[in-house]
């Protein structure tokens, strides 16, 4: 039986997890990444049990335990007096219930872990895709240096500005009107946030802040939204102005203003969105992660869903075998679309509810938040096991 040739575009979380999952399934793949070096910078990411159980099985259990933090709870508070609106227990309670931890990690630590479980000679750096063509019984990558690569299947893991996605749909990222400042603060500067390590959110009119410890508790990562009509820069490394950020949050609770003041540097990022699509593949091309379903970060699930996508796609390919490529892509789409569409919807809805000004709608939100404290509301999200989804989703 001939080996399937899989070409993955992008070595972000989606692309690297796919490379690891395909390797586990005995399927060879090559990853083409535009960046000359893989250096994830300055930001944290929340990993929920729906992703950590998969990362553990791919060989990252010990590595994650060493570098991550297992926060005790997610706490949502008011922006001015820090009244607690909702507390979701995490820590051991969450770990026991879902059989996997909720972690907060530095992106660079996650990336280093993923690189340790993929074959280094399969990741090609400085390889920027400019076009994909399909014809006969193969697809072709056309790289910026003039090289072409033939494959049985091209997987677009190339993020929100995906070139591969153009094979499936003609659309473009849409600026959300929100920017997010991100910073990392040495833990000793914000001890008031570390006595009880948690994911903390503060909601106020037009804005919110989220913070959590990373790097085994040595640093605190935060993100603070600021609406802006005219900011278009989209890069983890675009410099933000700490003074402008501090001014935007003047009058917020001292826990927020002291956290922001403790950051020497901040980055600023324009948040983009795209509408959902009803196909994730076309011919010999398929998309995963942000290339498939970018979502505003207000549900903290974009990376988690990228991990799930990659595991499901690898399973579909392994189960269908080289002769069943089209069926594998259809099955991947069938398994993944309902879930990622719902998460895109919820992320967008949170963009409104997180930023309500004081009034009736805000009071209704706060009452609902108190009534839905606890882990039950997360059961559908955290209990999902992508390793079994190909046999359980839609097969009854
Ligand atoms: C502020 C913020 C906070 C977030 N917080 C969380 C969180 O807490 N939890 C969570 O789950 N998610 C979070 N997310 C979402 C998460 O970051 C993304 O969903 C995730 O990084 C998507 O991974 P990806 O691999 O699909 O895409 P990306 O990370 O964008 O990776 C795409 C890769 O493809 C490469 N590439 C792009 N174009 C080309 C090309 N033409 N040729 C070759 N290579 C190319 C890029 O260089 C990059 O390496 C957050 C997002 C933001 C903006």
From TrEMBL:
Kindly give the PANTHER family that the UniProt entry links to this protein: GERANYLGERANYL DIPHOSPHATE REDUCTASE (PTHR13789:SF318), MONOOXYGENASE (PTHR13789)
Protein name per the record: Salicylate hydroxylase
Keyword field: FAD, Flavoprotein, Monooxygenase, Oxidoreductase
Q: Which cofactor does it need?
A: FAD
**Which is a Pfam family this sequence falls into?**
FAD_binding_3
Q: Which organism is it from?
A: Asanoa iriomotensis
InterPro entries from the entry? FAD-bd, FAD-dep_Monooxygenase_BioMet, FAD/NAD-bd_sf
Would you say which domain of life the source belongs to?
Bacteria
Q: Where is the FAD-binding domain?
A: 5-346
